[in-house]
Amino acid sequence: MVSMRLAVTLIAVLLTAAAAALVLVFQDNITQFNLRPRTPFQIAAPPPPPAYGARGAWALWPDAPDEGSADIFYVHSTTYSDRRGWNGPITGDHAERVLREVAAANEAGPFLRVGAVYGPRYRQATLYASFTHKYDGLASRELAYRDVAAAFEHFLSQRGESERPIIMVGYGQGGLHVLGLLQSYFAADKDLRAYLAAAYVVDQGTPLSLFEGPLLDIPPCESPESVRCVISYIDIQPGFEDEERRFISRALKWNASSELVPLPASPLLCVNPLSWTATNERISAEHHLGAASATGLRLSETPPPIAKATSAQCVGSILSVDAPQQKFLRRKHWFGAQWRPQNFNLFYHDLTVDAARRIEHLNLVLEEEAIHLDPIEEAVDLVVSPVNKVPD
Question: What is the band of 21 on the pLDDT scale with cuts at 50, 70, 90?
Fold first, then answer.
């Protein structure tokens, strides 16, 4: 009888261990299954649209419009992961808490030191949308982009005739929407483009093919002094090789009708934030100014820098970084934690210094351009001379 009980207990332990092992092996599949909305996008009622004339539609709005030396338009990463809808309301409690305490603190935080930050709330696509190129996933992101575009137009109306530099910042899903704004507004408007210090697209693939087409006049940043250009990188720590493949195989671009088009296996832009060039050279940790975790801090607080925490190298389309010794600066592996806003920014202080430098360089360029008028490109034939002969 005792041996029978031991056998049953052993079998139960083995089955439990086997089940736990299966859960760990298939944890990402299980997480994605649980994230998937159960109602098709076509028949799901979207949340009410934001009214960007109201302060409540903005997660970040400066106390004074002349804060710092630039205007910064920031679009946050995905904080909504509810299966009840393809797009989240701007008033969701959990998503709002993550936005305020984690996403905005670590993503927008570096730029709060250099300018006035405008960060709209928007009906963001749910996290699951990033795993599919089917209609529901694309349509939910297109709806989110329409909100962001409306917010950007309100931002432009508030700027008026301001000559302050503009910095565009987008993380994750927000980076995808920033790419749409670059194509729809900056690429088509030379006057607006003149004030673009730089666009930062982080943790979102920026297809290199864009710079041969719709972003021909807004190239990748080639040096730390470049302006009117794009900085983009996806930093991956060891152990996330599946994420590398997902980013490369699921690249997207906006077409002329602001619709998303999949670009399978598309080469992506990688600008190394330790050198601010697109080199494939490994840049040592000696050049790292500082990671930081601003989670839970007030936006007015600056977290202390953790310098020399990682080296970085563009390997193909991905920024390969060392896992920092500090565990709180490492991406989490378990049950989709790697897909959510991170509790840190590995290049927090590097971004602050770079943004300030590009603002300064753009102001110098603007001053130089104000002195020199554009040359006359074509000769004009005059049939009748407007000059009268001076009488004798």
Answer: very low
Q: For residue 310, what are the contacts with CB-CB under 8 A and spacing of at least 6? A: 285, 288, 291, 321, 322, 323, 324, 329, 346
Work out how many domains the chain is built from and give that number.
1
Distance of CA 125 to the CA centre of its chain: 14
| Domain hosting residue 90, numbered range | 13-371
- Answer whether residue 8 is part of any domain: no
Global pTM? 0.88
Residue 383 lies in a domain: no
The mean pLDDT of the chain is: 89
3 state SS for 144-206: HHHHHHHHHHHHHHHHCCCCCCEEEEEECHHHHHHHHHHHHHHCCCHHHHCCEEEEEEECCCC
Letter string b/e over residues 61-87, b meaning 16 or more CB atoms within 10 A of that residue's CB: bbeeeeebbbbbbbbbbbbbbbeebbb
> Rounded to the nearest 10 degrees, how much is the dihedral formed by the CA atoms of 340, 147, 265, 193?
-110
